[in-house]
Each structure stands twice: as C-alpha cells, then as structure tokens.
C-alpha cells in the first residue's frame, strides 16, 4: 500500500471503523472497548486506501498507543500523536518501523526477557474449558478493594477498577492470597486480566482455582474468554493451558517507549 491517506476519525467513518474492528474482535478488543466506554479519553487516526480503512492508531488517556494495519501505515499514523512517552501495543511486523520513532524502554510484563514483551493471545470456550477448582474461592465485589490493593501492592483506586466486572478470590486465614478478574468485556467476549497469587502460596494450584471459577462464570454469561500472556511467562502459560486456554495465533508486542528526538 502506497501513500495511505491519514485522517482523524469523524462521524463519516465511525460505522466503517466499527465494521473493520468487528472483523477480528480479538485483535481489536481494547479498541472496541475504549470506543464504547471511554470515548472522551480516546483519539483515533485512520489510514485509508482507496477510501477503505486499512489500519488505525488509537491513543487512550494520553498514555497508551495501539496500532493495527499494514506496516506502511505505522509511521504516518504515529506522526499524529504528540506523546513523548507511551505504552505501545503493536503488531510484530510494525517493530522495525516503530523503532524509527520510539525507543523501547521497558517491557509491558515483568516476566519478559528484554525490553519488549511478546504477548500470546489465548482463548477458552465451553468446548475446551477444563476447570481445576481445587480450593474454595468466592466472588469478589467492590468491598474487597482494600484486600486486593494489599495483595497487589497497588493504590486503592486501581484495585477498585479491577473489581468493576467479574472477579474471584481465594482466602487463607482471612487473607486474600489469590485472585483473577475480568474488568472489561464485550457482549460476546471477555478478557481475563490480573491473575495473581501471593509469593508464599504459589505452586499450590491457587491460580488455577480462581481462574477456573472466573472462566466458568464468564462462559455461563454467554461469553468466549480471551487473555494476553507473555511468551516468557512459563508459569502463567502452564496455568492457562491446564485450564483449557488455546492459542489463537494472535501475537502482539507491548512496551513502554520514549519518542526519539
């Protein structure tokens, strides 16, 4: 594709963009979700070829950049964002072009070897789900935010955000030791985020239990379930595979980067 036309999203292209995104809801999950729920925090630029959408750049909350589409679109799209530092979510084929504009600083996932996380996208359906509920777990609501903040070592507000959708936790002697959450979901698709177990309780099947309870609830709600996992995070990969998640073939790169001078 030569010389794509780059323009900001307008009313004229809202319907074509939605049609474009819905062709592959796994690739565009966060873009669809942000446009539905956080339009006031979202900016979008489109790359057009013969007046058809070929790709886009989405900027969320002045801190996250998500690029999709042909490699030839990436540099022209990135020129529209004024961010000097951002968390990037891109396709692997984009990396060499993105590096002309941004320098990777740190990976999106701490388990990553190097500065760039390669995320595998996995999905669970009712046909492949294999629950491993070996511990008693219970659904977490907003009143568990303080306990979750303590487990994760995050601010109370961030913990409360993680409990806005569906979440399940495991307690030991009244202490929250493991949890899994799905704070964002579409009508037919949900994403699992933040599966975490306290260091002193790992290796006991806790993550499998909370993840199993969460996935079963989401499937009962009529949703397929997806997640991102670093290819370097063998412990997490083993948990998800045992519960029945399968790789979709989608791969994305995530990293914090600074704009080059």
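^ Assign residues to that structure.
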């Amino acid at each position: 594709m030569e010389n794509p036309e780059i323009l900001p999203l307008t009313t004229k292209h809202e319907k074509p963009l939605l049609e474009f995104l819905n062709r592959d809801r796994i690739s565009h999950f966060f873009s669809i979700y942000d446009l539905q729920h956080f339009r006031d925090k979202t900016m979008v630029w489109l790359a057009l070829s013969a007046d058809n959408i070929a790709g886009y750049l989405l900027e969320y909350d002045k801190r996250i950049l998500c690029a999709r589409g042909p490699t030839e679109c990436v540099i022209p799209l990135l020129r529209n964002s004024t961010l000097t530092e951002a968390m990037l979510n891109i396709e692997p084929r984009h990396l060499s072009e993105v590096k002309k504009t941004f320098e990777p600083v740190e990976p999106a996932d701490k388990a990553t070897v190097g500065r760039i996380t390669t995320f595998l996208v996995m999905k669970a359906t009712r046909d492949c789900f294999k629950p491993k509920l070996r511990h008693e777990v219970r659904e977490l609501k907003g009143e568990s935010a303080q306990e979750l903040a303590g487990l994760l070592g995050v601010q109370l507000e961030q913990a409360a955000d993680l409990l806005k959708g569906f979440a399940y936790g495991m307690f030991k002697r009244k202490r929250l030791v493991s949890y899994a959450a799905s704070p964002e979901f579409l009508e037919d698709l949900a994403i699992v985020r933040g599966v975490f177990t306290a260091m002193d309780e790992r290796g006991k099947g806790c993550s499998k239990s909370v993840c199993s309870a969460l996935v079963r609830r989401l499937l009962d709600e009529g949703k397929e379930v997806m997640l991102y996992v670093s290819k370097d995070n063998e412990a997490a990969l083993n948990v998800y595979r045992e519960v029945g998640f399968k790789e979709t073939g989608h791969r994305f790169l995530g990293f914090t980067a600074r704009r080059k001078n």
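DSSP finds eight helices and 13 strands in the chain.
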